[in-house]
Every structure is written in structure tokens, then in C-alpha cells.
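Lab notes, practical 5.
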Amino acid sequence: MTDTARKRPSGRAPDENRIVSIETGFARHAEGSALIRVGGTEVLCTATVEERVPAFLRNRGQGWITAEYGMLPRATHHRGQREAAKGKQSGRTQEIQRLIARSLRACVDLKKLGERTITLDCDVLNADGGTRCASITGAWVALAIALKTIKRSQALTAQVAAVSCGLTEAGAVLDLDYIEDSNAQADTNFVLTADGGIIEIQGTAEDKPFQESEFFELLRLAKLGTARLFDAQNHVLETA
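Output from the prediction step:
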């Protein structure tokens, strides 16, 4: 494939992340918060600690991590109706918030958390692709800060970040923006840990199946991309 054919709409190299920044303390009342910017995508992630657990966990000596996800009406090109006004969440919203919750529960020892619940709210301010991945990456920072706030840092067992990869006209690429995501031949989301673990992989072929070799190239790109996200998380926690 020629160099011209491999050019991405953004001009980025195939293995290049979008610019990432994380700002902590944005939500002053929350036990932990992080405003994460990944290119044009911006998500406010807050962690709220409550001294109670769901009924099914009462008196079991362990805590719980849950999540909620939502998009502001003008986070996208056209105004979306608030889900509260419709009276129900979309299937997409429910699927994403369950993914966020699963991803963050996988990095916490719920016994060491004690009988308390941490709710991670991920509100998309601006969407330009990869909102679920940005939510997971930012929510991990908010969670780490909240655990430090309540003196339960020892409950954190892993560092977690997420990134999208896909097969496009430019080949296999890392960290898709909206233009690439909406036209990708295959779209995958990788939730990985800093020590090389895999929490979840979501992958979909749009028009034809992709091959095993292509999947492993996407995984290679995801490892590169999350390594940079881990660095960004560490930097902001060291300076917070």
C-alpha cells in the first residue's frame, strides 16, 4: 500500500494517538474527578463514594463499583434528546455504562474496599469518537483519587485504560476519531491493564470478516496506545 493510501484524515501516523490531557479536581464536590480530553472528545468523570452497598451485598464485607454514562444534547453534530426526557436510557447507553463498570470492578479488590459503593459518572461534553474508551481511561483516574481520599488505595489492584483501533482505508489504525469510526471496515475497543492483562475486547466487522493476522495487528496497536495512556494517567496522579 502506498504512503498516499495510508494517510489518515487527521494526518496522524497509523500508530499515533490523538493528543491526550487529563485534568483532576474539576468537580470540586466529588471524592475524585478527572476531565479527560482525547482529541476532540471530552468526558467529565466523577467518583462518588457512599457508605452503603446494594441489597444483594449487604453484610458480605465487600463493596461495589458501578457506573453511569451520558452525553450532553450538543455533544455531537446534531442535538440529541436528553434520555431523561424520553423516560428511558438507550440500549447503547446501558451497554457502555455496564462496560465502564465491569472494567473498573476488574481493578479493585472489593473486599478491601469495604461495604461502600463508588459510582463513576461519565458525562460526555464533546464527542469525536472513542467516548467509551475515554470514559474508562478517565474514570480510572477519578477512581484512584477517590480511593486515596477515603484511604483505601490498597484496594486498587491494577491500572486500566482503553483505546479503539480499527481497519480503515488507511489500514490498521490506532485511536479512531469520528470520521474514521463512522467509515471503518472493522472497529475494536480494547480495555487493557498496565501489566499486560486484558479486561475486555469488543470487535465488530462492518462489511466482511477480518482475519486473525489483522486482529493481532490491532492488538499490537492497542498495547502501544494504552501504554501512552498509562503514562498520562501516572503523570496526572503524580502532579495532582
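Observations recorded by the TA: The mean pLDDT is 94. The first helix runs from residue 83 to 86.
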